[in-house]
Each structure stands twice: as C-alpha cells, then as structure tokens.
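Lab notes, practical 5.
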Amino acid sequence: IMSDTIPSDTIIPDTLCVLAIGNSFTVDAMAMLPFVMQQVSPQTYFVLGILYRGGASLQSHLAYVTNDWTYSMYYRWTVETGWTQTRYKAPLEALDEEPWDCDLAARQSV
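Output from the prediction step:
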C-alpha cells in the first residue's frame, strides 16, 4: 500500500497498540507486520504484543484468558526494542502493559 492511495480525509492515529493471542500461525503472521505498518503509516507509533501457546484452540485461549493462566511466551515489538520475548506471561499482566487498541485471537489450524 502506498501512502498516496490513502484518502486525504483519513484520520491516522498517533499511536496504535495491537495485542494478538494465538499460536505459531499468529507469530508468523505478525512477524513482518511492524515493517508493513511503518511503510503504511510512518508517523504512527506502533506497539505489538503476542501471547503465544502452541497448538491452542479458541476454546483453550478463552480458558487461559478467563482463568488468567500463564502463556508459555509473550512477544512484544516497539520501534526502540524490536521484537523481545518473555517466558510465562499471564494474560492480565499483558493486558495491563499497554492501552491496547485492538485485541486479536487466532484459532488452531485444522
């Protein structure tokens, strides 16, 4: 997407924080997202987070979030740090870390 294709009346946020909850497909899908987002909206400050649990279904993600069970890995991206990872992060801890604008959940592949 080129910036000249964005309508002139489009409101572009100063900051955008996106938290994804998923498995390896989520990690793969989000891996290049910072670079795409920086090209589309270089003036926006992005924060991305991923709560990861391998092979998890939507039902298991619901149980993990509802019960605040610890995820095996938490990935976080900022322009200052790039991708970082933290083992054993609880959902409520991740949710409190940023003022997330968007939360995504991915289902298990079939």
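Observations recorded by the TA: The longest helix spans residues 58-67. The first strand starts at residue 15 and ends at 22.
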